[in-house]
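pasting for ref
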Amino acid sequence: MTDTPRAFLEGLFRSTVAAAQPRLCVPPHLPPLPRGRLIVLGAGKASAAMAAAVEAHYGDAGDIGGLVVTRDGHGVPCRRIEIVEAAHPVPDARAPQAAARMLALAAGATRDDLVLVLMSGGGSALLALPQEPVGLDEFRALTGALLRSGAAIGEMNTVRKHLSRIAGGRLAAAAAPAPLLTLAISDVPGDDPSTIGSGPTVPDPTTLAQARAVLAKYAIEPSAAIAARLADPANETPKPGDPVFAATRFAMTASPAQALAHAIAAARDAGYAVHSLGDAVEGEARVVGRDQARLARGIRAGTGPVAVPCVVISGGETTVTVRGRGRGGRNAEFLLAAMIELGGAPGIHALAGDTDGIDGVESSAGAYAAPDSLSRLAAAGLDARARLDDNDAWTVFDRLGDLVVTGPTLTNVNDFRAILIA
């Protein structure tokens, strides 16, 4: 227990990220080379690093090629696999171009080939390929509305899968009957393969009716073309048992639970008790922040489930219903709400960050809060509650100098939150 509280919490965050690096988690799952070609396709924030791990594993052996699309700034140089970048979380024109090329490569595979698909968080936007007559601008507008609505990632993907030419099992359908292996790094609560990147290679258990229900739940009015696609029974996605999945396999190479376990072990090794809330915490970021702050205050008062000194750790993916005009991110919003609820309680420090290094659309991974954060914020002339009401948590922590900036980490196992109670 010799580190400063911030250094200690940032060390726990780094241990979580390190545990899910593709160079470590991908190679154990790679199969022998096929008789024919190894066609590597992929999408997500970790997909380029995963492709680099594939190349390093096989060296110069085999007939290897393919195409992977990742978020801007997350590219990794590869010699044999083409890496392209595109916008995230709202897609741009590069996404459908890459997705269409991937469908063509998959359709050209033979039974002697192996289609190796590398999936990680962010793949849904990076593989945006809307069905005609839905245009990219309509799809972008719908994505933006879903992001602002507070919809959970599974709900968002239920809608997007039913508007896509490649998601919801349709990439596997294009490759059939060629053998196909998907290697994934999970960024979703529960590690549901059909939710990671909208599940382009696995059966889709969701339905058109559920997609329509999501839009109704959040009062999102679709365009006429989107409404027509979601109403057409012929547009249903491939379901479990469909023969297009007969030659497909799926393996999880890293998950939030596995990565979080490294942080828990590191905290215990440092002499702290740990109270884990699990890797699948969901809900409105400000509500989760408030609730975890109340838990921390109870622990410090001696009425909690564990004795001090301890760390409360959780993963998962919260959501933000955007009503203001500020700059934020779900981790910064979680932390600002927690900071307000704590009210400067002594001995309680907290950190929240996205393991991909990007909190929402900001250049920070998340932020850190100390017992004196509220008083320092007031001294700087900012009102914490007003900033929270305006979804402006990024501004708060930027002004305090307490943003956590890592740059792209080249992996993604969802959010990490830790509250240190001394």
